[in-house]
Amino acid sequence: MLTTACRAAKLAGKLLMASYGKLKNSQISTKSKNDFVTELDRKSEALIISIIKKRFPSHGILAEEGSSDKGDGTLWIIDPLDGTSNYIHQFPMFSVSIGILQKGRLEAGVVYDPVHDEMFTAQRGKGAFLNKKRVHTTRVKHLADGLVTTGIPFRARDRFDEYLASFEKISLGSVGLRRAGSAALDLVYVACGRFDGFWEINLSPWDIAAGALIIEEAGGRVTDMWGNPDYLKSGDILASNGLIHKELCAITSKTFTKLHRNKLSSFAEASEDEQDCSRP
To answer: Do 173 and 208 have their domain in common?
Structure first.
């Protein structure tokens, strides 16, 4: 399955690059305020699904632009263009993300950055890789020494004050913050050691499925804001090298109000082993 995911991501990336910087206004539409979709999002999604279905016709699909098929218990979670606004504005931080969920557990993930030709991959129990070279999270032990990345929650205005509170505390407690605009890339950048931590709220499963597994296989830790593993359901995610997770979680667990929701409810049950921020 990983080979198929890599092939699909690579071909989708090639498709995206062929039109990069050439989009016309007529090719861009708005899903909601500050949330755009292009013809390339849809074409990329269709290409990825066609490749998957040719090889695995009974597998399920959950994709950003509306394609869905529950399938036989194996679910491909697809973001055909993570960072659409960046793509539209020719800001070179966007990616293709494909995660594979089996029996409620992430088993494989691919995030492809077509601008820099970087392919991040992982299979459960087999490690994380960047262009076939093994990668690991950093060994930074304290938030004060960490470089952290985040995503600004443009859809979650009702929680914006909570986000700003977390932003203030983490920015003052760390080396600094960065915001690139592609959650999938933020996650794999933690996995390969470019960042030490990441947090964002109100994401969708396709934003985070692949990158979350890649971080875990690189030696890091991924939870929700309260130290629990149900980030795919809630869309609230905290990821780190593992060593600074307790410090980050101590901040996020106090600044955010927990919402009880399940963004995977009609597709799969993500596994849940209750945890908390106190775990190192």
So the answer is: yes
**Phi first, then psi: what are they for 37, rounded to 5°?**
-140, 140
Condensed to tens digits (0 to 9), the pLDDT of residues 19-50 reads: 998 877 666 766 555 445 678 888 999 999 99
pTM for the model stands at 0.91
- For residue 69, the enclosing domain spans 2-132
Q: What DSSP assignment string belongs to 2-53?
A: HHHHHHHHHHHHHHHHHHTT---GGGEEEEETTEEEEHHHHHHHHHHHHHHH
| DSSP summary character for residue 60 | E
Task: Give the pLDDT confidence of 200-244 residue by residue, as tens digits.
Answer: 999 999 999 999 999 999 999 999 999 999 899 999 999 999 999
Same domain, 10 and 109: yes
Q: What is the DSSP letter of 175?
A: S
SS3 of 129, please?
strand
